[in-house]
Amino acid sequence: MATIPFSPKSASNSKLISSFMHFNGCNGNPKVFLVTPCWSSRTPRRKFCVKNVASDKKQQFQDSVTQEELSGCLSNFVPDSASIASSIKFHAEFTPTFSPGLFELPKAYYATAESVRDMLIINWNATYDYYEKINVKQAYYISMEYLQGRALLNAIGNLELSGAYADALRRLGYNLEDVARQEPDAALGNGGLGRLASCFLDSLATLNYPAWGYGLRYKYGLFKQLITKDGQEEVAENWLEMGNPWEIVRHDISYPVKFYGEVISGPDGNKQWVGGEDITAVAYDVPIPGYKTKTTINLRLWSTKVAPEKFDLGAFNAGDHAKAYAAMKSAEKICYVLYPGDESVEGKTLRLKQQYTLCSASLHDIIARFEKRSGETVTWEKFPEKVAVQMNDTHPTLCIPELIRILVDVKGLSWKDAWDITRRTVAYTNHTVLPEALEKWSLELMQELLPRHVEIIKIIDEELIHEIIAKYGSEDLDLLQKKLKEMRILDNIELPDSIIELLNISEENSAADPIEEAEIPEEDIKATDDEDQSEELDENDEKVTTKVTFEPDPNLPKLVRMANLCVAGGKAVNGVAEIHSEIVKNEVFNEFYKLWPEKFQNKTNGVTPRRWISFCNPDLSKIITKWSGSEDWIKNTEILSTLRKFADNEDLQSEWREAKRKNKIKVASFLKEKTGYIVSPDAMFDVQVKRIHEYKRQLLNIMGIVYRYKKMKEMSPEEREQKFVPRVCIFGGKAFATYVQAKRIVKFITDVGATVNHDQDIGDLLKVVFVPDYNVSIAEVLIPGSELSQHVSTAGMEASGTSNMKFSMNGCILIGTLDGANVEIREEVGEDNFFLFGARAHEIAALRKERAEGKFVADPRFEEVKEFVRSGVFGPYNYDELMGSLEGNEGYGRADYFLVGKDFPSYIECQDKVDEAYRDQKRWTKMSILNTAGSYKFSSDRTIHEYARDIWKIYPVELP
């Protein structure tokens, strides 16, 4: 009987035992082992007996084998398909997620995932043991969203075990793809923000950068989208219903999180936050493996609960069940739903609780890890030398006051030191120029929920005002008032006493908010004689001048501007595309840019080429590898540019078209399964998949389709065939549950599809399909088979986009505006290989002004489409509200704020150019190849290198 000494204090030993249950890597003979407690006859020490249950052959492992030798042996072991099959069978039998006996697809998936996780655990532990041993500086990426998608194929792909797992599952009677489809997408994100975060983690691991991700473990996700006759309906996600084989709950890692209560001052002047509501954040860890590397980093997700004593047993036994578990439900609901509706005070409170929970638990964990690595002597000045915190948008803004609170109130640092440490540690990525997305929280709500943080934010605001005065002086109060109105963190809130004293502002000189010119009664104005035509005031009035006032407006809410707090409290601010970063500097945060130009950077987004070409598009990947000469492009995407020299090669073009057709056949099969619609793979596949939002202009796309359909109906069959290229127009994306206008757009698209797809006169010339519940896994099917992709946002409103990069990587040609990363994609792929239309970003303000002045005249074709929609051709639903939003000159929900009507003629004329290009398949294929070749710049590996070099100051650390 083989034995391994076991110490309950050794986490790594227990993991080694777990590994030995499946693989005997030390002698190169893969086996399966069963671990049972036993006693050695030679020594009274407790041991674990490792019994070979595959062949029942007994082997003795000598006590002289060290843990390090075992770990090294295992980490270098590459299992074959037989050992993998044995491991899967072991988990099917001994990891009892399902009942014994049957081995059906769901059970096969879980057993397979658990066998992969066992291998990841070895590298996972080794990675962080090594990081702690050398005390390396780490980056901590904090995000409310991680849109991971399925993990199985990605994990075995990164481990280079796809073939071995496919063979192993064939031995067990299953197909790897069928097993992988059993995995639900992790419901931890919604859109590009979350997908970007997941791509970044993949690149961090692949490039061997020391890093962690932090997020929340949402039980029900955002929502599962159903498409019914009434449009979009929302139901809760059930992704955790059968458990998550990729996560490991860390019961020993939890932190207290407080809400409400009050702040009291001690005799020494120190502040304490006491009372209120206490919950506990518990860590759930998910391994993120790198590609062709041992590095496996961590995504730590927080779940919330309360201590068992919070359950009121007396109330429960008395029949008051709601009261009995009120505290439990209050804690648990923090992690129920991503972005709960915030129309109500309760919804706003829950969102703020979510954000603070993420920040507080993560920072406590970061600080605990720093203290552990520091040993007996903690030097807080070195904290920024070991820790970099990146806030993904404004959701984690509370990291700034929370870090200060912990350093000052808990660790005993001075305000000056804590403020300096924070400003050298935390950085901020801005993802939007939309005002509603630059979060502003009610001061009253924050004061109630987080009283200590409001105190800290007020001090930060005061520090900021002093910096503004130091920069601009206090002589010109008019200028100063303008700067403060733009830059203060606290909006519509009185100035601090120290500032009032500094400026020597009298009370009567601070009576209103705006700059006002004093009204001078007409009878007090004295005219001089006719020889002197000037006017002057009498002696009593000559000192009445323009007066600057700083008092809040009682009619406006008092707010905390989170984006301003990010800029003031962070060491760096970056946009996510070149045009977006310029807008951030010149418009969104222009006053801050003038004050701190050195803080502002650009970091154009990127996506991982592993998931978004190599794994999701194996047919195209084989072609790229063949023509580039190796698989090195998967980590070094600059190699993709070598395809440019082969773009006219007929052999490459033939292979390229064949790969695209195979992917289109997969898409057609998928659409039939998901929607019931049958589409022809011979048609052009035209795709727009992303969050449904007015600025992303799905409405422009569908109105263009309506125009196309109307023109078809007016033609003879022969004219239609000659004029139009057959198209399948595919939509996907979720409208936020309370976003009424976005949900109207979903309804409109589905109604158009229901009419067009059943029109026998049109047949395969035009199909319109809305794919329900769009997610990463659906994207992995649609993107490889797409030929035209729509990125048609109003110029200047899309920060970057990442789906445009994924489509371009897969040889899909883009139609779009000069917005976000479209600008850089067009530069890289070539102007002739991008279909451009629409107004430019610098023109938008003037166009809206023109509209407000009543000078805009809509194109007759646009008016024709609106009238056609209102005629009822697409069903009985009343589209007056939707069409009405495109009319009028001003007013909320009107006046076509997103310029659909303005860009419509340019858009449909550009679509004619698309048809013309598609008819020439040689030209189209060349354009497709050049899109893939030009996408080399948009790898998340490149983006991460820039973050690591410019903001985080961290360096790759490869495991020995």
From TrEMBL:
Signal peptide: none annotated. InterPro entries: Glycg_phsphrylas, Glyco_trans_35, Pyridoxal_P_attach_site. It is found in: Plastid, Chloroplast. Its cofactor is pyridoxal 5'-phosphate. GO terms for cellular component: chloroplast. Residues 511-543 are annotated as: Disordered. Residues 529-541 have a biased composition (Acidic residues). It comes from the Eukaryota. The keyword Glycosyltransferase applies. GO terms for biological process: glycogen catabolic process. It catalyses: [(1->4)-alpha-D-glucosyl](n) + phosphate = [(1->4)-alpha-D-glucosyl](n-1) + alpha-D-glucose 1-phosphate. Keywords: Allosteric enzyme, Carbohydrate metabolism, Chloroplast, Glycosyltransferase, Plastid, Pyridoxal phosphate, Transferase, Transit peptide. Pfam families: Phosphorylase (PF00343). GO terms for molecular function: glycogen phosphorylase activity; pyridoxal phosphate binding. It is an enzyme of class 2 (transferase). NCBIfam families: P_ylase (TIGR02093). Allosteric enzyme that catalyzes the rate-limiting step in glycogen catabolism, the phosphorolytic cleavage of glycogen to produce glucose-1-phosphate, and plays a central role in maintaining cellular and organismal glucose homeostasis. This is Alpha-1,4 glucan phosphorylase.
